[in-house]
Amino acid sequence: GSARNPGIPRVPGALQVWRQAVAGRHDAVLLGSAGDQVKHLLHRLSRGEFPKGTTPRVIVLLIGINDWLQTPKVTLKSPAGLARIANHVSGAIARIVALLHHLSNCSSRIIVMGILPCGSVKNGRGLQYSWPSLYTKPINLTNQAIRALAETHSGVEYLDCGKHLLNESGRGMNKTNTYDGLHPSAQGYAVLLRSCLLPAVAPYL
Structurally, how many domains does the chain consist of? Predict the structure, then answer.
């Protein structure tokens, strides 16, 4: 999915976290791509990027934030615009899930992560750690649709790890777990893996 996955090798200390928590225990592969939007992932999967000859026990999907980051701010402030983009993103995620089912011969458990929170990035006003932020409504709308998708499809489940990137009050991004209000730090990856993602996939391994 998104850059929050391939960022692991680039964030200082994050690769060590990945190796200790995942790579040393499980046969896992990261297939995220920086800047990926839903259309890009659909394209890559349709062109053969899914590992051939494999049937993963679990597939974890995280995608969608870059679609919102590339949306004009005037659209983000329009109810009609929000609904249009949310339908586009969630509809594409549904197609990705269907394609993953097909590519895995309907044998893999698919865990669709809710889009993680992020501050009002790139605004030049020091609000990159704000939450609620410019992206709270877009993220919530998309996550509601993802949850509904998971509830109506067997073999698919929704996973919300967002609270682990927020501070204790739930108002504001945790500056220890994210280094820029968007991407997790090494500690952020450790928390996401050990407190949310690994417990969710454990029953299927």
Answer: 1
Q: Which residues pair with 110 in a beta bridge?
A: 59, 156
pTM reported for the whole predicted model: 0.91
Cβ–Cβ < 8 Å for 32, 62: yes
Task: Kindly report the backbone phi and psi dihedral angles of residue 173, in degrees, each rounded to the nearest multiple of 5, phi listed first.
Answer: -75, 145
The range of the structural domain enclosing residue 148 comes to 14-204
Judge whether 8 lies within some domain. no
Element (H, E) at 143: helix 136-151
Residue 139, C-beta contacts closer than 8 angstroms, at least 6 positions apart: 65, 68, 114, 115, 116, 117, 118, 162
Residue 104 resides in a domain: yes
- pLDDT digits (tens), the chain, 205 positions: 454 555 566 788 888 898 888 877 888 888 888 889 999 999 999 999 888 888 899 999 999 999 999 999 999 999 999 999 999 999 999 999 999 999 999 999 999 999 999 998 765 556 789 999 999 999 999 999 999 999 999 899 999 999 999 999 999 999 999 988 999 999 999 999 999 999 999 999 8
Q: What is the CATH number of the domain that holds 159?
A: 3.40.50.1110
